[in-house]
Design goal:
About 35% of the residues are buried. Helix 1 runs parallel beside helix 11 (about 300-315), helix 5 crosses helix 11 and helix 21 crosses helix 22. Strands 6-7-8-3-9-10 form a six-stranded mixed β-sheet, with helices on both faces. The protein is about 65% helix and about 10% strand. By secondary structure, it is of the alpha/beta class. Bound molecules: adenosine-5'-triphosphate. Adenosine-5'-triphosphate binds near residues 107, 110, 370 and 377. Adenosine-5'-triphosphate binds near residues 347 and 376. GO terms for molecular function: ATP binding. Its main location: membrane. It holds the Pfam family ABC_tran.
């Protein structure tokens, strides 16, 4: 328990001193809570000795009243200090987590961690937020209350004090074992919740595929299994903790009986004042109540410790360094706008790019072509610093991208992905993401250039229509054009384009091609090209083969070379399907 308090205090950071001040008031509150019994014992002793005056009763009454009032005042101060610190610290923690997630490499999000991130942000954070201050306040009050009661027992009689202390010691030892074991159980429980969250996400994301393959039942079965596993772990956790709690109750009962027996014996021997005897009897049944209460929180505490560990484990993930301070110079004809210099890159252990070098000059369009898996997307991801190179350099206007802040780098890049993601917000908000200050006029112009004005105007509220999460309420072609309009509005000088491979109807196809040409007008462009027309019109074609540059040059140069590219083009012209040609080339 004390370790948990220490962990919460570490988590509290700059709010820890405020919480520590609350300890003082928690102690004072516990003193006040036990004060009435001391007053009662003094009164009884005076009564038995025949020294109790009416004025003494009045003083005792006033003291009792004062103690009750002070107790609630101190409790109020504790609550205020702790809950204010709690709200502030969790608001900070959420911001810290959000900022941290923004600086993690993309690999963290693709390595099966989505279930973990979601359950940390939803289940763990919420649990800690709702419970921690409450548990902290109760544990601190219980610890102080138990210390005061044991001290009081010593004051009444040392032997009684030792008996109470021995019981507390035995309970703490047993609770240590319980805590250690409970921790293991709650790790399993939280992992089951993580798997369940992952299963729910996967089920929701894959529902269309499952339905189309008539597998909806299979998906639901997997989900049900995850639910069942989570339920089993919850039950097993409760079953596990219960016997330990019973063992603790037995210890308290033995301790309490020993104290009562000793008290009777001492009184019989004349070694104890009658008032003190009554005092012990008065306390006997609630002698270990604070400890009992504190350890009844053990299940909650174990889950909280694991939750805090899991939040911390996300916070401990290494960020991509984002402390670049270099200023990006203006574009120049003399320095390449983009340069890949001897770039190699590995996901985990496997190197997928080997010593790749090429340049893109300002205003040029470079087409990346190659078989599926040859490394085209990875190259563009390195330019955007979604990952960092393993060796070599990616430079923008002669500056290594690692020396630029993400704000500066993203300021000069626009990216159109194949998989379009639009947020559940208005069309206007989605378009102005990269240019929040854009006027309505510019927004309309961008939409027009990207061939989306017509369909936007047909939406119920035009630019103020809220589109579904992930663009679920738009057609694929419409969503793609909106994502291009978003980049046109951003107006960044470098464009990275992953050309759509999806089979679109002729109208959509030509609308998207027009939108893309508008986007790339006067820009430096790297395009992952899938259409021969796009490739042929590029200033330079970089042909990738298993992560290496196989050939490089203009369409005419590469055709004249009669190498890999020429074969790909020949296959395209005869079979008419570029993607399958790539596989054969
Ligand atoms: N997140 C990842 N983790 C591990 N390996 C990856 C990851 N992303 C891609 N790879 C691997 O890296 C290699 C290059 O992939 P990349 O996506 O860059 O190829 P590509 O040429 O863009 O393919 P496609 O045309 O199919 O999109 C492939 O072998 C792929 O399996």
């Amino acid at each position: 328990m004390l370790r948990l308090i220490h962990q919460i205090m570490l988590f509290a950071g700059s709010y820890a001193p405020r919480i520590r001040v609350s300890y003082i008031f928690a102690f004072l509150k516990s003193l006040c809570a036990n004060g009435p019994v001391i007053v009662a014992i003094v009164l009884v002793n005076m009564l038995l000795e025949g020294t109790l005056e009416p004025s003494g009763c009045v003083v005792a009454g006033v003291v009792l009243l004062l103690l009750i009032v002070l107790q609630s005042v101190f409790q109020n101060i504790v609550d205020r200090l702790q809950s204010a610190a709690g709200y502030l610290m969790f608001a900070d923690a959420r911001m810290k987590l959000a900022t941290h997630l923004r600086h993690l490499p993309m690999g963290y999000f693709t390595a099966g961690n989505l279930g973990k991130i979601s359950s940390v942000l939803s289940a763990d954070m919420v649990f800690v937020e709702e419970q921690s201050m409450d548990v902290l306040s109760q544990v601190i009050s219980d610890v102080f209350a138990q210390i005061i009661i044991v001290a009081f027992m010593f004051w009444l009689h040392p032997i009684i004090g030792f008996a109470a202390l021995a019981t507390v010691f035995a309970a703490v030892v047993v609770a240590q074992f319980m805590n250690r074991e409970a921790l293991g159980e709650s790790v399993n429980r939280q992992q089951a919740i993580e798997q369940l969250t992952g299963a729910v996400l996967e089920y929701a994301e894959g529902i269309a595929v499952n339905k189309s393959f008539n597998r909806a039942g299979v998906g639901a079965r997997e989900l049900r299994e995850a639910f069942a596993e989570s339920r089993d772990h919850n039950l097993s956790f409760e079953r596990f903790i219960s016997p330990w709690q019973r063992a603790l109750l037995v210890i308290y009962a033995i301790g309490m009986s020993a104290v009562v027996a000793l008290c009777v014996w001492l009184y019989g021997q004349g070694a104890m004042e009658p008032g003190n005897f009554i005092g012990v009897m008065f306390f006997a049944f609630s002698l270990f109540a604070p400890l009992k209460h504190m350890y009844s929180l053990d299940g909650t505490a174990a889950i909280m410790k694991v939750s805090l560990d899991r939040v911390q484990s996300v916070l401990d993930e290494e960020e991509i360094e984002d402390n670049g301070k270099k200023v990006l110079p203006a574009s120049s004809e003399d320095v390449p706008e983009i340069e890949f210099r001897n770039v190699s890159f590995s996901y985990e252990d496997e190197e997928v790019l080997h010593d790749v070098s090429f340049t893109v000059h300002v205003g040029e369009t470079v087409a990346l072509v190659g078989q599926s898996g040859s490394g085209k997307t990875t190259l563009t991801n390195l330019l955007a610093r979604f990952w960092d190179v393993s060796s070599g350099q990616v430079l923008v206007r002669g500056v290594d991208v690692r020396e630029l802040s993400s704000e500066v780098l993203m300021g000069v890049l626009s990216m159109v992905f194949q998989r379009v993601y639009l947020f559940e917000d208005t069309v206007r908000a989605n378009l102005s993401m990269g240019a929040p200050e854009a006027s309505d006029k510019r927004i309309v112009q961008a939409a027009e250039k990207a061939q989306c004005l017509n369909f936007i105007m047909k939406l119920p509220y035009g630019f103020d229509t809220v589109i579904g999460e992930g663009a679920s309420t738009l057609s694929g072609g419409e969503a793609q054009r909106l994502s291009i309009a978003r980049c046109i509005l951003k107006d960044a000088p470098i464009v990275i384009l992953d050309e759509a491979t999806a089979n679109l109807d002729a109208d959509n196809e030509s609308a998207i091609q027009q939108a893309m040409s508008e986007l790339c007008r006067d820009k430096t462009t790297i395009v992952i090209a899938h259409h021969l027309s796009t490739i042929m019109s590029a200033d330079k074609i970089v042909v990738l083969d298993s992560g290496r540059v196989a050939e490089m040059g203009s369409h005419e140069e590469l055709i004249a070379r009669d190498g890999m590219y020429a074969k790909m083009v020949a296959a395209e012209l005869t079979a008419g399907v570029w993607s399958s040609c790539k596989e054969e080339a």
